[in-house]
Records
---
Amino acid sequence: MLVLLVALAAGPAEILEAACVKCHDAGNRKGGLDLSTRQGLLTGGESGPAVVPGRSRESLLMRLVTHDDEPAMPRKADKLPPAEIAALARWIDGGVPYARTLVGRADPPHWAWAPLRPAGGSLPPGRGAVSRTLIRRATFDLWGLPPTSDDNERYEDLVDRLLASPHYGERWGRHWLDVARYADSEGFEDDGDRKHAYVYRDFVIRALNEDMPFDQFVRWQLAGDELAPEDPNALAATGFLAAGVSIKLNPTDSKENKEKHRYDELDDFVSTTGAAFLGLTVGCARCHDHKYDPITSRDYYALVAAFIGTEKRRELALGSAQREWEEFRQARRDEHRERRMAELAIPDEDRDLLRQSLHKNNPVQKKVFGKWDAKLQTMDDELALTPEQRVVWQSLERAAQAEGTTLRELAVTEAPLTPPAFLLARGEPRNKVATIAFALPAFLAGGKSLEAWGREVPRSSPRAVLAAWLTDVDQGAGRVLARVTVNRLWQHHFGVGLVDTPNDLGTQATPLRNPELLDFLAGELVRGGWRLKPLHRLIMTSAAYRQQRPLRRLEAETVRDAILAVSGTLNAAMYGPAVKPPIPAEAIASRSKYLTDEKDGPAVRRRTVYLFTKRSVRNPMLEVFDAPDATASCGRRTPTTVPTQSLALMNDASVRARARDFARRLEHETGRDRRRQIDRAFRLAFGRPPRAPERAGAARYLAHASLVDFCHALFLTNEFLYVE
Amino acid sequence: MMDRRQFLHTLASSALTAGRAAAAPSARSVIWLFMEGGPSAVDTFDPKPELKKHHGKRPKEAIETFFGRPGPLMQSPFSFQQHGGSGLWVCDRMPAIARHADELAVIKSCFAESPNHSPAMYQMNTGMTRAGFPSVGSWVTYGLGTDNKSLPGFVVFPNEAGSKGGPQNWGHGFLPGTFQATPFRTGGAPILNLSRPSDVGDQRALLDYAQSLNRDHRRRHGDEPDLEARMHSHELAYRMQSEGRKVADLTRETDETRRLYGIDRDVTRPFGSKCLMARRLVESGVRFVQLYSDGEWDSHGNLAQQHGQRCDETDVPIAGLLTDLKRCGLLDSTLVIWGGEFGRMPVSEQGQGRDHNPHGFLVWMAGAGIKAGVSHGETDELGYRAAVNPVSVNDLHATMLHLLGLDHRKLTYLHNGRRFRLTDVAGEVIRPVLS
């Protein structure tokens, strides 16, 4: 017996623990089978006894592990090696001895969810001469614009200068706006304009320029309204949630249809949050447990519950001075109302009803209002104010007006009454299984209770808890957020990330190149207080960044911005309402109106990040160069090479107009000297002077062509459209 | 210059590696006549005697309408006759299409999910009621590429009044942008940016100069396929300026052909021009052409007038297209699809209109691989819900792909860690309508 026990310890037990017991233990009992004890093995499961002791050939377990019978075991894993199968057979023939209860061996956690490796990696700095290529690469990388000078600047100083410029936020803000599926309109057929959506876009650009710690950046976007309700910036940040599409439903729409669209909106909140911050395709679990990642349908609806009371805010939201003034004003109106009620000798019970706001389904109150309310209404100038009150009134009014921006249709808020959230079968609002409460995804949750999280946030709302958990490296999912974030950074610096699928770092992610580096960078981000700029500096001064790399085509916005910059007509004004450049009528195939009075003037020659993004009327120049359509979070654009891009570059009226501006600029800056014109043109377009044969070639072409055509030709070159 | 195969590979490498073959293809190309707004089944090809019998009465079953003002049952304002050997019923406002009754396979039991226009249109085009997924035409060009290198593979003629839900109806979703539809127009230049700027000198010389810089640049950067592809793309674009115009130039057709499509009459000219251009595109090797009807089938107020008007605009052009495809020998290789995003209610709305009905509506197909002169499935006796052999949008899509030789279960694209399909996890090929 002793011999057998030793044999088991060395062989079958480990095989079973590694391959089988995870699913077939007392807890899981897949197929009704528990292999963790001898009794469980002999009792068997739904398909009968798993073994016949002493007779391996007649044992179901053997037929399944040899794949002679269905279902082949172990499930979703490689077949056991022959030596292990033979060991199992010997064990069965030997009477299936158990020395102990077997415990399923859990897989090591997927790399994205594992604890961060202790600091150990590094990113060696680069040395050597600073080439024009490197200057051009760094400038496009941080600004999305061509370089403005090639002075003898130390490379480290160049990087610092680029990072300090507000162009940095415009460039990297645009990267984030892709992830946030940001647009300036509602989507669907009405696709009404969101005239104030830009407040969120401005928040993003400002936050990046100020190097707001990324954990705060994330927390505010998820729950700024809860975490810092007095701060207009925190409210603006929640435009992240509000940025998704919204359908305009008819009041008479069926309840079923309204509910379906509400769950679509909730899915947008949950899926975007998962993709943007956790690199998780949470949305897959809307209809069934995730097929690959350990997210159950229950996890999904428990996250939906975090947003169940979250509504896009459309009413006027007031700043603190405005609120103060409004409160003061309301108090004076209430006093006036009381005086009038006394004058009119309204009965006491009616007065009580008149003091409350009118409820539509209170017939008694409605009747009372019908009788009196008109007589109680008053204009502001009819209020009898004391001189002291008048002074306060005026100063508050001035302060409120000075506060400026009112926040509308850009943020989210919590409904006063939180409706129940439901677990839906197959994602169907018709198939409500049970109500469900907010919970963190089990496989990432960590040990801390929701109550404990709740005590750490100013309002213990689920969204605030979610935000706190997401950004906590020690007890929450902060390590995952850090990995997702540095991977995005790496991707935008190098064209490809350390993982190619930036919105999916789950088990289906593409293979991770260099795990040590990812964890090193994630650790650096956390150690550096979640500030991005030091990380940009670290990456950009590294040897890896400075060596030669494959070419990358400029993104849609960068193509347009570079053309504007080279032609000398870029309007560098920042922030504010989005601008609608003219779009040719024949390019509009939507029912929704695209109204603009703008002509091709300085007002529309802003950086592309400030252009109005109408979901159903896409700017043809940007669409053709693969700008995302803002329907869902986009972590990575797919660059294409199609002839309609060439047509746009050859024939688009605004491209041609910029070629004319470019030519005028050359004449203005260099006079009529051909050689100087050519030199200047090459420097502006390519960041380098022409080589001698190029100078000669340009002169030959210019002998028969206009300077405008020459300038236009440069826009069609790969050297202009690609960065090394 | 890079050779064409290499160029195509650059464009569509992902498609070339995707397993996707089904049976031998019946169809080489598709013309989809999208009747935007939702044409009514009971007023076009599927009359219901019960509606006549109970006209003006309240239905027994509660009817859930979109705008929530269901009236009594309403008989069709049109009269019907049976046509051809198949005996297909066709309303008297489609006399020209009626002559093709024996070429159509009418699927009378379609159902969809949404009673709202744009989600329903997204579903009919992409399988999903939300925007952002690849449209059928994108999937097809991803799976099959295109046969004409001077024209795009997927062309759409939008509703002149603007299509509800906009370009996401023919978007590429998560597929590469290469598979996005190129919107065409009738009249003038068919594609955006096809006309040269008026002040450009010799554009060929301009391009030659740019390409000479590109050649030098490529020499300095050896192994970069995208540089080749872009140089090729410039040349293709240059050729499209003339090719695109040529294919759009309907004056190259005979008067007889233009009359066949109704281009000689104001009422039929717009849709007739789209139909004739569709034939010319398919003839030139374009894979997938989708034409949206102009104006609305969305007849809430006065169905007789609104549907009547749409019939008048499209009847002759569609019949002309079928006739012309047949005589050119193209009907054998072209799948023609007619239908909207949903149908309409058997009850009246505002007295003489009908509300949206996603529960039961019809689509017909004709041409390559289609069994001519059959009908498949039925709605209930009022035409409210699909009752016999219900056909989902996934089923319609599976059938379209099948006819093109693509297996809807195998045409996949890896996105966000999962292999996506046009038909998600459902869809059955509708065998009874296949020849």
---
Amino acid sequence: MMSPPPAGTHSVLAIEGRNFSGRSDALHRLTKQGLEGARASSPPKATRANTYVGVDAQNYLSGLLPTLRGELELHGIVTSPRRCAVEAVLATGNLSNLAARNPVTLSGGQQVILAIATALLSTREILAIDCSLEQLSPENRTQVLQALGRPDLHGVQTILADNRLLEFRDSVSVQAGLPDVSEPATSVPVMLADILATIPTSAQPLGLEGVNFSYQSGKPVFRNLTCQFDPGYVHFIVGPNGVGKSSLGKLLCGLFKPHGGSLWVGNHVPWQPWLNPGRSVAYHFQNPDLQLFRTRVADVVDASDEVTEAFGLTKFLSEHPLDLPFVLRKRLAIASTVARRRPWLILDEPILGQDDSTARILARILDRAAASGAGIIVITHSKWFRSLVARPRLLTLHPENEREEQHVANSF
Amino acid sequence: MADNVWLLLGAWLSFLMALTAVGFVRIHLRLTLAFVIPLAVSSLVINALIAVAPGEMPGDRFGRAVPLAFALAFRVSAIAAAIQLCFLPLIANGNLVNFLRAWRLPDSAVLVVIGGITILAEVRARGRQIFEARLAQGLGTANRWGALRQIPFMLMPLFVSMLESSAARAILWQERRLVNQLANYRVTDQKTDSACIWCARLVVSCAWCVAAALLRSK
């Protein structure tokens, strides 16, 4: 039996635990039954006073209106007593200036912020956030957590399941743990095998020279961006939500074509990846569901592949990929991207929803791949994950499109 | 009137002007490019080259097939433009909810109808993401023909993600009572609330009634 938090508190409560420890089930139960329901011995009828925000934030936006302003007004922001708190949440992702944007076109992190803001407007008692905050930059996450702890939220209790809480204990008051979380229904140990051989070692340096890029209807994402990526390092692209981290990865993969400037490879040989996207650079997307195209796990990854074993997927070979829980779908999508055997590998939020032990395993895999000469680029907000890697390089993207590149190996 | 190319052209241009006034002309032109023009070309090919009567050579009917193809194109375009003019402004300003409720539809049915409409933008966005994911894996090419060939492989993830998204959204709408809020929702700066839309709709309705009455009297 789970112990619900004390009533009337405004602090943020966190449920700790590993993957498959039942955290999501606990959040769903609290959302459905409410605090009193969770305390009661017999399950009461479902309540509509609570809201749940999961990993795929787009599903937690109404989609009924084509602008951000419309979405907020539909949720009653104009008359809500929580307007100030919600505006504080929105300010973190710079969403206050994007009122006319279609929510579908926002970045993943910005969609999370909007989903939380709209949920706040609808919640009466419990706001359950399941791993979504992992998509926010450290600054934005701290500000959102502070906004969620504001006293003017009128009794809303925020409850988190989050794998990166260790990084935020100092910045906000996080109550750790519901002690008696139910036993896991299934336990999936992740085995580490040597997957060094699975990543080729023929990667060459690549870079951008004075690149300009913007989406069809919007202000420039990059203006005169110049940077270089070398094999042998694990490059981390960091920056606030919506600054263009994923867009930079997609430019390198060839999914987007720059509007100015050039890309180069090797000894500054001009390179046009958009002519053959995905051939030199493999890209793992944040959302694993959109990159699994087959009907069996065995068709996505090779059964005899070391990667399959390393990610603990061998026992699920006959399953449908989309039947697996999110955590395993994410691992499967990473495994399928690695299995493409491209010289460069870009991983967008690879540890989203993954617990610490899985993150450590992934860090070791990336280290060994980089040591063998592969090119690795990781987009993540976790400082802790960056500290696990032996040879990290940091590329910070600023909203003003200034660039700062530095070695951070000694920083940790 | 239904076979007179010039009258049909006039009707279509009138509707086109009205659609331009209310800001939906791009949607209509997209429909014209994707559906009406291929339909007219097919009609031309079939009537001029394939459907040959005994004693005729392919191409003999070309002179008659051309106005027939134009008439077909303008007729379909005019009807489609009229329908778009009447129904597109209903979406997303809450009038659709009130309209469906006026028919005494239960909220569950209203949710299904609204869901069917709102899911289109979602399908487009997710489809784009899935296409990019396939490109990122080196599957397919970025040109239009390459995109067409990707469609069969995109259906499964697209369909599943849409189902999941629809289920999550339906729960969200019910829990937050968003359909009720949408019915009462008004945004002052939304184009669809402008008076010219109501005028255009009124003109279309009147023109439709007059044309139907005239044709019936003949």
